[in-house]
From TrEMBL:
Its EC number is 2.8.1.4. ATP binds at residues 183-184, 208-209, 266, 288, 297. It catalyses: [ThiS sulfur-carrier protein]-C-terminal Gly-Gly-AMP + S-sulfanyl-L-cysteinyl-[cysteine desulfurase] + AH2 = [ThiS sulfur-carrier protein]-C-terminal-Gly-aminoethanethioate + L-cysteinyl-[cysteine desulfurase] + A + AMP + 2 H(+); [ThiI sulfur-carrier protein]-S-sulfanyl-L-cysteine + a uridine in tRNA + 2 reduced [2Fe-2S]-[ferredoxin] + ATP + H(+) = [ThiI sulfur-carrier protein]-L-cysteine + a 4-thiouridine in tRNA + 2 oxidized [2Fe-2S]-[ferredoxin] + AMP + diphosphate. SUPFAM superfamilies: Adenine nucleotide alpha hydrolases-like (SSF52402), THUMP domain-like (SSF143437). It is found in: Cytoplasm. SMART domains: THUMP (SM00981). It is an enzyme of class 2 (transferase). This is Probable tRNA sulfurtransferase. Residues 60-165 form the THUMP domain. The keyword Cytoplasm applies. Its main location: cytoplasm. One of its GO terms (molecular function) is CCA tRNA nucleotidyltransferase activity.
Length: 406
């Protein structure tokens, strides 16, 4: 065990004052949650940075976990030494000796944040570099393109030495930008949209529409699985709303407007989601729509569908190509689940030629002529079931009408 700490870097230079304090608080909470499975480690902070003390635990699994947290820019496992020349040299030696692949070239980059340290940065580069070169006769210095860059960060309380800068997920910490509802279908796109929304610091509640018994239990399992995966990234449990959509879907299918059924269904989904958002204090709706992908995602379709709600519709994938979306789905570990074959409710009633250019007045007229659409929407909201999901367990299943969550 060579490393004794991990340095976590975050922070946007544009963030000032209260915003920054809030960001830091959320960040720390998130790290605390993520480190819960590692009770042996502890963390502490100094301005603009957080440090995890490993206390003898291996760094790899902890680095793997932390690099997926939002709000962090990069992290490095470090050796810490006393801020004094000989201790720094000794630590540099252990670090170079520990490298699995001994490099042919290297350079030392010293940053002297503590101005009380007696040697200037440039001088330190030489003092440490020469010491290493004496011990490794085959090694040479290459300042432009070294195989290994040995970084030495001299702070007053200690000096940190490291060779690796591991990029982290970026974005904002979980929940630092308010709450939105995520329309989660079980397809490839919506989990990716969810991940991108979480990365921007949104807290999410997922909403899934099912048409049981036309849709299977496995389709629901799939969405549960995807929500659990997303909660790994949020580092906090995610509430999943399961909306019974069979009656509404069947009734809309009976309106005799085959090519508008997807438009009508989507509008009903948004109305229900808006109701759930109001009940749960969410201020936006995230979807996995991507411009032009299917009939309901043309600009005229989105115009007619979106007008049914006043909440902002957030569509992180709107300008992305499918290949780019799939690459993210693979990276975040949702792809394999998303491509499982079980149908969601929308594929069931898919008409032969869904409209790519629906007419708002006609759609509104159909809705106004429906005997009890608003009532059915209220019933669906009232009969929605909720589950609270964490990466490895479902903690609660709640039936409609019960109100005690925690
Ligand atoms: P996805 O891969 O996310 O299913 P898609 O390309 O298949 O997207 P659609 O099926 O037309 O596109 O759905 C567009 C968006 O509408 C989805 O990304 C999702 O946000 C929402 N949506 C569709 N079906 C459902 C559903 N059954 N429950 C919840 N949201 C849904
Ligand atoms: Mg879909």
């Amino acid at each position: 065990m060579i490393y004794d700490q991990i340095v976590l870097r975050y922070g946007d230079l544009l963030m000032k004052g209260r915003n920054r304090n809030q960001f830091e608080k959320k960040m720390q909470q998130q790290i605390k949650n993520a480190l819960r499975p590692y009770p042996g480690v502890s963390f502490w902070k100094s301005y603009g940075r957080l440090y995890v003390k490993l206390n003898g635990q291996p760094h790899e699994p902890i680095v793997d976990r932390l690099k997926d947290l939002f709000g962090l820019q990069s992290l490095s496992p470090v050796i810490s030494a006393e801020s004094e020349l000989e201790s720094i040299r000794a630590a540099a030696m252990s670090l170079m000796t520990s490298l699995k692949q001994p490099p042919k070239t290297f350079k030392v980059s010293v940053k002297r944040a503590w101005k009380g340290f007696p040697h200037q940065s440039q001088e330190m580069n030489h003092l440490v570099g020469a010491h290493i070169l004496r011990a490794f006769p085959d090694l040479s210095v290459d300042v432009r393109n070294p195989e290994v860059e040995l970084r030495v960060d001299i702070q007053e309380e200690a000096t940190y030495l490291f060779c690796e800068m591991i990029p982290a997920a970026g974005g904002f910490p979980f929940g630092s930008n308010g709450k939105a509802m995520l329309l989660l279908s079980g397809g490839i796109d919506s989990p990716v949209a969810g991940w991108m929304a979480l990365r921007k610091g949104l807290e999410l509640e997922a909403v899934h529409f099912h048409s049981y018994p036309f849709t299977s239990e496995q389709a629901k399992e799939k969405v549960i699985e995807l929500t659990k995966r997303l909660s790994y990234y949020s580092g906090a449990p995610i509430k999943l709303h399961l909306v019974p959509f069979t009656d509404i879907q069947t009734s809309l299918a009976q309106q005799g407007q085959d090519n508008l059924i997807i438009t009508l269904m989507r509008r009903a989904m948004l109305r229900i989601t808006e109701g759930l958002a109001l009940k749960n204090g969410a201020l936006g709706i995230v979807t996995g729509e991507s411009l032009g992908q299917v009939a309901s995602q043309t600009l005229p379709s989105m115009n007619v569908i979106g007008r049914t709600t006043d909440l902002p519709l957030l569509k992180p994938l709107i300008m992305m190509d499918k290949a780019e979306i799939i690459a993210i789905a693979e990276k975040i570990g949702t792809y394999a689940t998303s491509i499982l074959p079980y149908e969601d409710c929308c594929t069931l009633f898919l008409p032969k030629s869904p409209s790519t250019n629906p007419n708002l007045h006609i759609v509104e007229r159909i809705e106004a002529g429906h005997p009890n659409l608003t009532e059915m929407i209220e019933t669906a909201i009232a009969n929605t079931e909720q589950m609270i999901l964490s990466p490895n367990k479902a903690t609660t299943v709640q039936k409609a009408g019960e109100d005690s969550w925690f």
